[in-house]
Amino acid sequence: xxxxxxxxxxxxxxxxxxxxxxxxxxxxxxxxxxxxxxxxxxxxxxxxxxxxxxxxxxxxxxxxxxxxxxxxxxxxxxxxxxxxxxxxxxxxxxxxxxxxxxxxxxxxxxxxxxxxxxxxxxxxxxxxxxxxxxxxxxxxxxxxxxxxxxxxxxxxxxxxxxxxxxxxxxxxxxxxxxxxxxxxxxxxxxxxxxxxxxxxxxxxxxxxxxxxxxxxxxxxxxxxxxxxxxxxxxxxxxxxxxxxxxxxxxxxxxxxxxxxxxxxxxxxxxxxxxxxxxxxxxxxxxxxxx
Length: 290
Hints:
Elements: E1 7-8, E2 23-27, H1 28-32, E3 38-44, E4 47-62, E5 65-77, E6 83-87, E7 92-99, H2 101-105, H3 110-115, E8 120-123, H4 127-146, H5 151-169, H6 173-178, H7 181-197, H8 204-211, H9 215-226, H10 230-248, H11 253-259, H12 265-276, H13 280-289
Parallel strand pairs: 1-3
Antiparallel strand pairs: 2-7, 3-6, 4-5, 4-6, 4-7, 5-8
């Protein structure tokens, strides 16, 4: 039987979505201590996660990349990204899990939505900003746990403050001047369509038609907000999934090629080498050696 990448909500437990934009916060030690501070690689289907660690050394794996982090760090993990962690015992920090419907519900917060589109690591070097972040997370936990009047409003606003804090720390103010909420929504919907259709190798004009925009407009928006063409973004999704399967499963190259919609493994190998400058076989061997 082929080994598959596990899909979890919160470390294997169902995530209760009582309403759109549901948010969950917990202390890192709550589950990690039971798992000997080692979170095996997995991915979430509908959850974006933010992991915050205070003043400690830890390792994070996001798809094929590994990060050795020391100090005060935050990691943003979009839905579908394979991730795993190794924490030191008694690590202090939080895991914030967000239903991905939050991305499309905050129409006026395009820059904050953009923050959740790609994996991100950010170091908090500003002590005042770090103190604010801790305070916001503590208030968020209070609102979730005590469910007082209009708690959902407070939760949404506190989450925005947390994202804004990270956004400022990342020093991406140029996005605030350039990105518009409608264009960000198009990018989000485009990525959602990619998730549903990337193995069918749908054409870019077909994507544009489903988004009810022209191909040229889709090209302009992707180049403006993501610094890449729509075709390159679709191809990168295919490459990312291929890498995930090569690293985390026992599927053969023929099986991977078939499941990713390639007509034969030779075509898949040419596609993979063009994108990565290496063959699937060599990539898998190197990953196993590491």
